[in-house]
Amino acid sequence: MTAMFANNDRSQTSETLDLAGIGIGPSNLSLASLLDSVGTIHAHFFERRSKFDWHPGMMLPDVELQSSYLKDLVTPVLPTSPWSFISYLVAHKRLYAFLNAQYDAVPRREFAAYLAWVASRLNGLTFDAAVRDVSFDKDRFRLRFDNGSVVAKNLVVGTGTTPFTPSWAAPFLGERCFHNSEAFFRLPSLNAARIAVIGGGQSGGEVVEALLNSKPALKELNWFSRRHNFEPINDTAFSNQVFSPEYVYAYLNLNNDQKQEALKASVLTSDGLSISTINAIYRRLYTLRYLENRHIDAKLSPNRDVIQVGVDKDGYRLVVRNRFDGGVEVAHADAIVLATGYQFRLPDAMAGLEDRIQFDRNSRLMLNDDYCLNWNGPKQNRIFAQNAGRYSHGIADSQLSLMAWRSAHIVNSLLGHDHFDLEPHDSQVNWLSSGHDIMVQSMAVDY
Ligand SMILES: Cc1cc2nc3c(=O)[nH]c(=O)nc-3n(C[C@H](O)[C@H](O)[C@H](O)COP(=O)(O)OP(=O)(O)OC[C@H]3O[C@@H](n4cnc5c(N)ncnc54)[C@H](O)[C@@H]3O)c2cc1C
Ligand SMILES: NC(=O)c1ccc[n+]([C@@H]2O[C@H](COP(=O)([O-])OP(=O)(O)OC[C@H]3O[C@@H](n4cnc5c(N)ncnc54)[C@H](OP(=O)(O)O)[C@@H]3O)[C@@H](O)[C@H]2O)c1
Fold this sequence. Notes:
The protein is an alpha/beta fold.
């Protein structure tokens, strides 16, 4: 049985594909955009959503991109591509207006519109096509959908990260206790006088800002962060070197323990709060208190680990450990937003292959330097994984910054030669001991 798809691309999916992609988020969209310039690889990508939609549950008012718009789907490796952010602006006749707007950070709505514009024009993408199951027989992967299947020689998993909810939250998940990934849909109808937001990363910050701006009935807001403080993103020149190919090449030379240490040390280059979000929250609290004389009991509590939630006659009862002084506190709320992060996991559709794939002792995927999984199938049938290499390739892997560069590695690997020039530039920072040559060759695994 062969899949028949109604989509923005009518290309053939009945033959064996060179590459089948699961998921169309920015990562696989970048790969599809680069493959479009190559032309010789027969690839097709499948997305469960009915159209491209970039984290729709977090499209809160005024949210901004945390990275440069030049780190788009293609520009860092193929600046002449028609699928760049600049091409989008030109096509929409607003390049000058965009420049005149002098954004410090691009609105996320604008970048999402750019991504959707590419997705609506590029060949080789099919929406409304959830991959339900992947199997392998002899030398072919078979991807099954609700209405058929396709076969492919290679796979690329681009299903992104999954919202993480602590186990104690599971019994309460619903309209009054939800992950921030549902915020856009749930906040408008949320009617609660006391709200607790758990998690002090950018998602937590954006939810807190939205609550302070949109909920006149809010009387009490508890914001818990497990970090030492409401930590800002480290967005300075030297820190940003970790978002460079040179850093990744250096990082790949480390052993697992060294990688863990380096990752820990670089977390806030990626996962801290944007300065604009910090300022917006602080100023809103100032305005409410001193200029509008509106009292919201805003309790901002860093160093707090929420360890248990229950329900009593006073609503949700949160048990919180204070990591600063060791105390244990209790707080109450009528609603809880879990801004507790995201994790990579293989999609359920891959369950049938899981016992053929290698995981480390922490149940993380063993990702080779060229973004291929270690699996016990034939060497020429590869399973690439995007946005799965935070531990193996460093902090940048879970961000947009190096997605074009990573996609270019996958293209080179599929072609078996250096179609894209990915030689490192001179680094401003010496990461490795002198005499230690960066192992660029390690990316080129021999198949
Ligand atoms: C709210 C938010 C904002 C962010 N903003 C930035 C930023 O400004 N700058 C930055 O560098 N990073 C940012 N990030 C981090 C990262 O860049 C994004 O998470 C990015 O979306 C990752 O892209 P992706 O394609 O790997 O995954 P995703 O965007 O999650 O896309 C995965 C896609 O796979 C689909 N899918 C899943 N399972 C299946 C299946 N079985 N079959 C078919 N399709 C499937 C999903 O529907 C989804 O569309 C942000 C993260 C979040 C959560
Ligand atoms: N506009 C944007 O560009 C935008 C918007 C949202 C997100 N993002 C990006 O997306 C990524 C994910 O961001 P995120 O904020 O969703 O996740 P995150 O950065 O991982 O933050 C989640 C936080 O929740 C904390 N946490 C987890 N369980 C907790 C508990 N039981 N009690 C208290 N705290 C708990 C974690 O603590 P620990 O630190 O101890 O693990 C962590 O600090 C980041 O890279 C971020 O920059 C970007």
